[in-house]
Design brief:
The strands form six sheets. The protein has a six-stranded antiparallel beta sheet, sandwiched between helices. The radius of gyration is 25 Å and the shape is globular. The protein starts with a strand and ends in a 9-residue tail after the last strand. It is an alpha+beta fold and 332 residues long. Helix content is 33%, strand content 31%.
Amino acid sequence: MIIKRAILHILDFNSGMSVFSQNELDLSDETVSTFLQKHIEKLHKDSARKSGNFNEESGFAAALTEYRNGALEFIDFTTQIANVLYENISISDKLEPIDLVAVDYINDESDYFALLLITNKSAYTHQVITDESGIHNEIMKHYAILPTPSQKIDAYAIINMQSGEIYFADKKRQIDGNSVFVLPQILLECSSGASTKEVVKIVRETANEVAEEYGVNTAVAVSKAKSYIVENCEESDTISTEELAENIFSESPIMREAFEKKIEEKEIPKDIKIEKASAVRASKSQKIKTDTGIEITVPVEYFEDDRYIEFINNNDGTISIALKNIGKLTNR
């Protein structure tokens, strides 16, 4: 990753005083560059991020084009962004102090523009005081603590300036009695697709619903859905819901049709674009919980291999689970 330029604007809604920077951040400072790089790398792997594309009439898209063409300076562009955010968030129900960090960078040979809305937290620290009585240490409260690279940024937008693809996460805010996502709806003016995390959850829940309705083993159906996602991710970053239905319910056209209908009703497109690494992490194992309180986590590939796990339908209507070929048990 190469960070070309970055800037920080302060939007303090508590004091009503915002500070728009007139200078860029010093990227030669290792603290600054490490902070930015670590957070951006983490956001590129965020399974909860949504995806979208600019609407045809997006003013942000037009301004971004001006910036890329050199007709709009970086500081001027980011100050415009900060103003739009301040004007809208200041009349919302969430007035926490925010630092807006804008970053122009290169990642995997693509040009990106990122906006990070970083909520300031308060925290306690120590302070060394020297006075006429000597040195003494005190506890003080600091009101502008930024998140460490291991902590999550709740609201952000990452724009691929070559493809126009947008990835974002945002908090819902109440403005004039309406629920609004300020980043996609007001600032960027872009569409909003389901996140990888949401897609995997919807697929899992839908497979479970259909299996339950038709009286087949829900654990096996869900495991087939997850197995398909993991295997598909080795070759593609798109999931076909038709192929997914065929894979889960290969022996029942009626169940395939029911699955596809439910997916469509949940407004999931037939071809779903996902983030590979996130989808694999969310699908590589499956937790089963019985009504007797027992929980087990099983790698999804084991569900179709009766050398490791077998579901037995008993005559009384109950189900038994046999775990096989166990060489060692470890207590945790």
